[in-house]
Amino acid sequence: MKLQNAAALAIVAVGAASLVQRERHQQQQNQVAVTQNQLEWLRHVTTHPDVAELWKPDDVTVEEYIKLMHVNELLCALSLRHRLGVLRGRPLRHCARWVMQREYGRKYWERFGSYRVEEADVDGTAIAFNEAMNDAHDHERPLASS
Prior knowledge:
The protein has six helices and no strands. It is mainly alpha-helical and 146 residues long. It has one domain (29-145).
């Protein structure tokens, strides 16, 4: 009887692990789909100035807004890599510094970084990504003004 119980427990454990893996895979597929939608929207905005005109803040030119949205495209792609576990730790910090070493990377973060922070709310993965970007921005800002 003990062998049957152990075998039943093993089957239950394998089944549970399979369900957890399937759920994780589904979440990853959802994240990819949402990011693809966002990237398609950003490509549309950056290639159609008339659409950019509708969405830009009043104090930003269309040309400037399009440049900022190109940075947003990059951050969306990097954020997805981070969510999928491909970009963590030192590589994430390296990419964040690389973005913030560029004028428009810093301009984007200064203008829209707080929106990304609000959007992250209690999502630990998004919070970690934003912290890496914010730290890189804070590190690069004094270098940019020198």
